[in-house]
Input
Amino acid sequence: MKQQFTTTHQDHRVALLAALAISIHIIESAFPSPLPGIKPGLANVITLFTFIMYGWRTALQVSLLRVVISSLVLGTFLSPTFLLSLSGALLSLSSLILVQFLFRLLPISPPGAIGYAVVAAISHMSGQFFIAWYFFIPHPGLFKLLPIFITFAVILGIVSGIITQLIIKTIKSETT
Output
C-alpha cells in the first residue's frame, strides 16, 4: 500500500525559501573571503525576510534546512564548519526573537529590516566567534580579532538589511 503525503501551502513556502537560501549559500561558499570567517552572508537575507514576513517558526525551519542541506551538499556536515554555521544561525535567530519580543513590550515600533539585520549579523558573528574560541582556538589572542569581526558584521548586516528591505518593498508593491 502506497503512503500518500499531503503538503500544505506553508510546506511549499518553506521549501521554496529554503531552496533559495541553500542555493545562495552554496554559491557564496565559492567566493574567496577577505579573512577566515567573513562572508557576506547573503543567504541570511532569506532567513531575515522569512522572519519579518512569516514569523520566527518559518524562519527557523528555513534556517535549519539551509544549514543542514548546504553542509550535506558541500561535504561539511558535522564538521567544525557545520558547527560554526549552526551556532551562528541559531544565535542570530534567537536574537531576532528576543528583539521582537522586547519591542512588543515597548511603546515604540520595531527596528525594521536594517535594524534586525545588524542584530542578526552581530549575533551570528558572535556565536561563531565564541564557538571557534571555545572548541577550536582557545587562545586569548583571538579576542584581538573580535573588533574586526564585529565591524564586518555591522557593515554586512546593513547591506543585508538594505537588500531585505528592498525585497519586502518590491513584494508589497507588487501585491497591492
